[in-house]
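Supplementary Methods. Inverse-folding protocol.

Structures were first reduced to a discrete structure-token string of length 131. This string, shown here, constituted the complete conditioning input.
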């Protein structure tokens, strides 16, 4: 349900805070706008059962997403360097997350994204099986 909601949001033009990256392999999120636009919703307009950024990121991690860090090469000339620094700052407001089974070109892979079971849950399940 979480993944389907995220997919629909990314395909929708209704949301400005989340979109497919240029390569259509990464989820791009403007964190501050996402907090207002998505996590700030309550009642029947609420999309996810979480209200904080930390909880949303935990959901991403639970489904196997990894945060991707974007690096910018530096330029030798001062004007280019300043322009690149400004672009990098604007770009730093955007966070990228990747899951190999969550890409725009291959929606059929969405079924491969499985919710991870945490270590404590696995240990409890193993102990129950031993009994």
């Amino acid at each position: 349900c979480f993944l389907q909601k995220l997919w629909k949001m990314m395909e929708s033009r209704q949301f400005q805070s989340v979109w497919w990256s240029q390569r259509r392999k990464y989820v791009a999120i403007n964190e501050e706008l996402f907090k207002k636009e998505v996590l700030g919703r309550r009642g029947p307009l609420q999309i996810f059962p979480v209200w904080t950024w930390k909880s949303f990121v935990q959901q991403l991690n639970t489904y196997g997403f990894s945060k991707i860090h974007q690096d910018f090469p530096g330029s030798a000339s001062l004007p280019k360097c300043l322009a690149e620094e400004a672009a990098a700052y604007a770009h730093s407001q955007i966070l990228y997350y990747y899951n190999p089974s969550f890409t725009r070109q291959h929606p059929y892979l969405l079924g491969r994204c499985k919710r991870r079971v945490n270590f404590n849950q696995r240990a409890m399940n193993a102990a129950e099986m031993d009994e």
